[in-house]
Automatic annotation (TrEMBL):
UniProt-listed Gene3D superfamilies: Homeodomain-like (1.10.10.60)
GO-annotated molecular function: DNA binding; transposase activity
GO biological process, one term: DNA transposition
Any coiled-coil regions, as ranges: 62-89
Alphabetical UniProt keywords: Coiled coil
Superkingdom in the source lineage: Bacteria
The organism's taxonomic lineage, starting at the top: Bacteria, Pseudomonadati, Pseudomonadota, Acidithiobacillia, Acidithiobacillales
Cleaved signal peptide residues: none
PANTHER family named in the record: PROTEIN DISTAL ANTENNA
Name of this chain's protein: Transposase
């Protein structure tokens, strides 16, 4: 029969990594304290040391999120500018069409 895969929350993983990096516990001590396999804990710590986010697959680093935020703000500014141009053009053509009907 197959093994049941245990899943852990992002918060749990982050706290587990803190036990080792911030509190100085060994992998063995932390593994016993929180009942997580030593190899799993080692992977989380290696990812954290390598700059990868601790947590679910697909999680992104702060730098990646800041970069995306910067890009989205730039796109939003561009869209607002284009919207304002279209509004002005529509108002201009609306005035032009009204002037033609008053003859």
């Amino acid at each position: 029969m197959g093994k049941k895969v245990q899943s852990y929350t992002t918060e749990f993983r982050a706290e587990a990594v803190k036990l080792i990096l911030a509190q100085g516990l060994t992998l063995q001590e932390a593994s016993q304290r929180i009942s997580v396999p030593k190899g799993t804990l080692a992977n989380w710590v290696a990812n954290a040391r390598g700059g990868k986010p601790v947590g679910a697959p697909g999680a992104r680093t702060v730098a990646e999120l800041e970069g995306e935020n910067k890009q989205l703000r730039k796109e939003l500014a561009q869209m607002r500018m284009e919207r304002d141009i279209v509004k002005k053009a529509a108002a201009y053509f609306a005035r032009e069409s009204l002037q033609g009907t008053h003859s």
